[in-house]
Amino acid sequence: MRKIPTSVLSIAIALLAWTVAATAQTPSPSPVAQRTAGLQRQEGFLPFYLDSAKGRLLLEVRLNQPMLYFVTVAKGIGSVDLGVDRGAASGSKLIQFERNGSRVVLVEQNLRFRADAGNTALRQNLEDSFASSTLASFNIESEDSGRLLIDVTPFIIRDAIELEAQLRRRNEGVYKLDPARSGIYPARTRTFPQNTEIEATVTYTSDNPGRLISRVAPEPGALTIRLHHSFVQLPEGYRPRAADPRIGALALSFKNYSAPYNQGSNVQWIRRWRLEKREPASAVSEPKKPIVFYLDPSIPEPVRSAMRGGVLWWNHAFEAAGFRNAIQVLDPPPDMDPMDSRFNYILWVNRDERGFSVGGSVSDPRTGEILVAKPRMDSHRIKTISGYWQNYRIGADQGFDADGCADFMLPYDALLSEAAAQSGPGAEEALVLLRQALVTAHEVGHCLGFAHNWNSSINDRASVMEYPSPRVKITNGRIDLSDAYQRDIGEYDKFAVRYAYSEFSPEREHDGLETIIRQMRGRGILFTPSADPRWNRYDDLESPALYLRETLAQRRLLLDRYGSQVLRPGEPYGALRGMGLWMTYLHHRWAIDSGVRYIGGMYDNIAVKGESVAPTEIVPAALQREVLSLLMEALQPSNISIPERLLAELAPNPDARDIEEFNMSTGDAFDHLSAARTSCALVLEQMLEPARAARLVTFADRQPGGLTLMEVLTAVTANTWDKSSGANESAMSASLRRVAQREALDAMMILGAHAQATPEVRAVTLGHLTRLRASIAGKHDSNLGSAREAHLRQCERDLTKYLENPAAYAPKSSALPQPAGAPLGMRP
Question: In sequence order, what are the residues at sequence separation of 6 or more whose Cβ sits closer than 8 angstroms to the Cβ of residue 377?
Answer without folding.
Answer: 296, 299, 307, 346, 347, 348, 349, 357, 439, 440, 443
